[in-house]
Amino acid sequence: MTSLDAASLVHDHTVYSCVMGSRAFGLATEGSDTDRRGVFLAPTSSFWRFEKPPTHVDGPAPEQFSWELERFCELALRANPNVLECLHSPLVERIDDTGRELLALRGAFLSRQAHETFTRYATGQRRKLESDVRTHGAPRWKHAMHLLRLLMSARELLRTGVLTIDVGERREELLAVKRGEVGWAEVERRMARLADECGEAVGRSPLPDHPDRARVEEFLVRTRRASALSAG
To answer: Which of 51, 64, 144, 207 could bond to 36 as cystine, CB 3.0-4.6 Å?
Structure first.
């Protein structure tokens, strides 16, 4: 599909969009970007052509990224941290009936698999920070702050079964890391402690072992069928 077609999918067929990043996490400061994430439903008829609709669209606005509904659900069922957190943003900008159904399914995507995906993602990000320290003598402090936030979120998800992305009273503690006021050795210690606490929490977590794939698939099939029928 052309870039214009992709932009039209986002403009005309978005079912859910929200603000993510620092503004959703309660970590925004003056000059923070506004990161927008969304989900669009490609018309069922668009899949009948040889050229299929895109699974995601970057843009059309700056700092905007959207997934087609099926791709979004696939990633959420795999406990992708970035996707799961989109479903829990406190800053919803656009939503329709399909989007409300998607949000009502938030619990169906959550499982103990989040331990593996969140900590695997954190491990990869920590390696990048360690590389920065070796190369430049210091990490990118903003990235270090967000990694600590992610680990805190994962720990509480595993402990409570609820994913909360706003940092609340931890805001100033985390912003001190962003400002470089906490030494790297201490940041590493906090990361290691949080990772250990995630490991301790997973065995006693109220979350199920696996997400409710059947429930999500029923929603997807029903939504695709409704799209096809509405097209006449």
So the answer is: 64
